[in-house]
Write a structure and sequence with these properties.
By secondary structure, the chain is an alpha/beta fold. It has 12 helices and 8 strands. It starts with 8 loop residues before the first strand and ends in a 6-residue tail after the last helix. It binds NADP nicotinamide-adenine-dinucleotide phosphate (NAP).
Length: 295
Amino acid sequence: MNNKTATPVAVIGLGLMGQALAGAFLKAGHPTTIWNRTTSKADQLLAQGAQLAPTVGDALKAGALTVVCLTDYQALQEVLGGADETALDGTTLVNLTSGDSTQARETARWAEQYGARYLDGAIMAIPSGIGTVDAVILHSGPQSDFEAHKPTLDALGTVTYLGADHGLASLYDVAGLAMMWSVLNAWLQGTAMLRTAGVDAATYAPFAQQIAAGVAAWLPGYAEQIDQGSFPAEVSAMETDARAMAHLVEESEALGVNAELPRLIKAMADRSIAAGHGGEQYPVLIEEFGKPGID
Ligand code: NAP
């Protein structure tokens, strides 16, 4: 991870994540200029050799690239929009602030109109992981800008390029959230059910882990069916799955645990069966997921 190219960088935003990012640049030997609204958050980094920029504009002019990591895009607009606009001209911004794809695309247009080059990014890691290969950081925007700065960004973790559309990093980020919460909610559902029989969470957790890993292994094959638009029931048909879903709903209701998630799962399958897909395999549900649905 430690690279010898001492490219000067700037980091704007020194919250928990921004401090970790600046610390990783310093550790990799990059001269690092920092700025934060609350100056005291710079203290530890200054002790490690960072330079404090008196203004945001000074930070923007200090590095070959400027990493921005603030609470949200509104804070980004307040911070960068409040700077002298000429300071953006000729800079490269790498915005690692979390948000959605619309915000990313709008911010790209906004930055580019002032002559800045812009990459949007999403951090799939916690601050303590930054600077290690475990920290996956997604980027989208012009490929030439990503490639020009990849040797510097490598100091932060495993940096990955997704494509020219600035919205892609945020889209992958949010898609990942859907996966994370769905897996956790499914585990909590099962845990709530088993606790009624005196089985504690720690006893069920290894079983749940095994199931999650087994299901995850189906994804590439199911993805092929989705991309081909063809869903032969090679393992089981939706009608069979729907009968098992009814057991999940009935068991949850009988045990007096929350049955909202089981009912939602079954309702989507029932709609798919009603649309004529009962004999097809589970990923045919992509057609239900691909439209707004019922609130
Ligand atoms: P944080 O500790 O709450 O820090 C927020 C930062 O934004 C601080 O530097 C804060 O400045 C600044 N800020 C907020 N509003 C501002 C405003 N109006 N004007 C100027 N500065 C403003 O948050 P964080 O954990 O570092 O997260 C930063 C970003 O990284 C978020 O988008 C988050 O979703 C993303 N992220 C975080 C994690 C994580 O585990 N922490 C993981 C992945 C992604 P002050 O210090 O002056 O308040």
